[in-house]
Amino acid sequence: MVTVIPDYTFFVQLANFLVLIIILNLLLFKPVLKHLSERDAKIAGQHEDAAGYANKAQAMLRDFERELADARVKANQSYHSLQQEGISRQRERLSQAKAEAQSTVEKARAQVSAESGRARETLEKEMAKLPGEIASKLLGRPV
Question: Residue 19: what pLDDT?
Fold first, then answer.
């Protein structure tokens, strides 16, 4: 078995090691650890901000979709009301056109009736003269 006898170099190396640990701790480990913790805090903050922005975007998307659905409902209602209004106007104009056509037909019937009455009167007058003219022509003398 090997035995180590501690001498003064062991204590010098131990002191050197402890001084090196203290210097490295002050100059290297603490600044690096501080920088890493700041970076982690900054990253965590950015993650929180990103999550907040994502939530805000989702809320805005839901609002947009709700407003879009409302707009579609209003558009459908407007379409149906305009369609009903158009149908009622069409019916109104159709009934006006039928009334005008009926009025025109009645006027035409009245005119035809009046003209046929005048024609009948004229024919009756002509028919009253006709037998005398026929007799005059047959007899060759005025009757």
Answer: 97
Q: How far apart are CA 119 and CA 110, in angstroms?
A: 14
Query: CA-to-CA distance for 73 and 66, rounded, in angstroms?
Result: 11
Residue 48 identity: E
Distance separating alpha carbons of residues 121 and 117, to the nearest angstrom: 6
* Alpha carbons 18 and 2: distance in angstroms, whole number: 26
State how far the Cα of 31 lies from the Cα of 102, in Å rounded to an integer: 104
Is this model's pTM higher than 0.90 or not?
Answer: no
pLDDT in tens, 18-39: 999 999 999 999 999 999 999 9
- What is the per-residue pLDDT for 129? 81
Q: What CA–CA distance (Å, rounded) separates 70 from 81?
A: 16
Q: Are 19 and 26 in contact (CB under 8 A)?
A: no
**Which are the contacts of 142, defined by CB distance < 8 A and separation ≥ 6?**
136
